[in-house]
Design brief:
Distance between the termini: 32 Å
Structural class: alpha+beta
Strand order of the largest sheet: 10-22-21-20-11-18-19
Helix content: 40-55%
Largest sheet: 7 strands, mixed
Number of helices: 20
Amino acid sequence: MTRKQKKTLIRILISLVLLVAVWITDGFVTLQPAYLLLFLYGIPYLVIGYDVLRKAVLNIMHGQLFDENFLMAVATLGAVGTGEYREAVAVMLFYQVGELFQSYAVGKSRKSITGLMNIRPDYANIERNGALVQVDPEEISVGDTIIVKPGERIPLDGIILEGKTSVDTSALTGESVPRTLHAGDDVISGCVNESGLIKVKVTKPFDDSTVAKILDLVENSSSKKAKAENFITRFAKVYTPVVVCSAVLLAVLPPLVLRGDAVVWKNWIQRALTFLVISCPCALVISVPLSFFGGIGGASKCGILVKGGNYMEALAKTGIVVFDKTGTLTRGVFHVTALHPDTVSENALIELAAIAEYYSDHPIAISVKEAYGKDIDVSRITSAEEIAGKGVKAVIDGREVYVGNDKMMDKIGAEWHPCHKSAMGTTIHVTVGNTYAGHLIISDEVKPDAVAAVRDLQKENIRLVMLTGDTRAVGEAVAEQLGIGGVFTNLLPGDKVHKVEGLIDNKENNKTLAFVGDGINDAPALSRADVGIAMGAIGSDAAIEAADVVLMDDQPTKIHTAIAISKNTVKLVKENIIFSLGVKLIVLILGALGIAGMWWAVFADVGVAVIAILNATRALHIKKYSVK
């Protein structure tokens, strides 16, 4: 509990004790004159309500007339004016109880998100003049070497130069099992170094680091409101002035029409004051944003970062999920599984391919170089050019060498042929000059939980489509293995965008299309989809920038988890809207008819708000969604 909450609780207890004391005294001894009773009840009233009165006056001075402070001030002061001192104190007391409860609930839901803020490192260790010095991470430059001790948080993205350790990534991914890292492995800022001392070469400045981008994402998540939140904001702006005017008319018109005496006027004024208390819209104004905030916080516990309530609302209506294959449903870890030479030897074929791919960081290029397994003499390479979506062109030993897919071969007019064996994988062709040298087969692995992810989504009656740049045979084989009915193959990055646009044009109006990609070469499709989901995005700048939802690890099952959390959050929002409006409407009618008194009004305001807030905090309970 915060210091402010503790002060409010103390004021509530003091006011309650004073109210009970005066109430009991008034029951045994008739307090006279009337101003003595006003004075005695006025003490607990001011103790508990002075801040509400102050806010109401300040808001009126700033032109903000119709808010909950104004409603409470008018209603309780009106009750005092009609001699209902006890009711005035009680209404203010219960209102503050509701405010305290609301503050605690907001703090609890905020804690799940602000817990992520603890990933911000306080310092970085760097060696200067033979001594280890702690400096601000923002002072570290790219290329500097930092030292991370066991138990410290990794301050910057980099590569391990020396040491072996286990790294706790739970704050980012929700995973409880640490990852073991060695020299040469990448490390991500925000993780905790658990066991060994490591030396890390910094690869990104702090402002561009993973932790900085995640913190920026989290801090701005509440700025993107869902349609339901915007509706409630607009509704409250119209609703509050309407009910205040209605209360004034309720207090004035009936006595004028009935030509009533002082008793009649007092009766209708009391009804109007009760009407005002009932009408306070705080249950809606607080519980709806709190539900989305709680949903975002609950998702973050699972390593799922949702950039705003609007994306959570859209995710709940998902009708189509479009997958990129590589890095999303498959591991994106390629291996050369076959060599089929035509005019050169196997050794010459893999050597030519590896030298041509020397400057490329594409996963396929890495797999070719790993399969070659020897040092490459860079002096043999005169030039190298990567052709997006097709392959590479290099001049090796004075000869033009092309390494790429079928489209590359067609572009240069090579007399190539498809793989003559049943090896399943991506075919990479190699030509030397105009001579076809042969081809390699490179295979990818399906992720362990990809089948379960597909099954979970299909249970929700979500249509699944897979897009891939691989050949038809490879794409259809993976789709069949996973149980995905729709698959489009031989696609360039631009083709994927066109396919996504076509699916959006043909989807049901009320449904959402979510595109799931690895966030690197899928950025255009991620941006074009109704909801872009970046898969396995830890450390990927493109993912965090382009996607609306970021899954911080490589588990496809978390796509279903994200959708389930979103559906539950939207369900809670709808429940709160229906419940709050329904109860208020009923009690407003009863209050206008004189059936419901001030105590009913307290329930319709504070009671409904507390129940709605309690319901909203259920969005934080994500145990049943957690991926084991």
